[in-house]
Amino acid sequence: MEWFEQARAAEQVCDWDAAIALVSVHAECYSADSAAHDSHLWHLDLLVRAERRTELTELARTDVHARRRLNRSLRERGMEAALRNRAEDADRDALYVLVRLLCETGRAREAARVVQDLGPDDRHAHQIVAHFGSPPSAAR
Q: How far apart are CA 65 and CA 139, in angstroms?
């Protein structure tokens, strides 16, 4: 049985330690070898599924893929405060994920405030809010 078959088998029975150990050895960010890069993304997904946020957060300091996967995980878990904290620490992806989440849940006004507070000059953040429509006027 090949390593990836062993890793898939471990993943299927939620043996996260075994799956992570098998995959991480073959994982390489931005590798010219697409299999190594795919293993890197798989490794990050396993970390999320194993709820190893501390390890993922550490990787996110220097790895854009880990940063994006962490932010997506925070969104999936409804952890808006954690996303906001990451955005306040200059994580632009966290800002975009938070703004999209707010807009998609009918809170465009709040999203616009977040953009004004955390990224007033961030064109992309403003575009996200605009994509969902201008927030209703506060004055009625």
A: 42
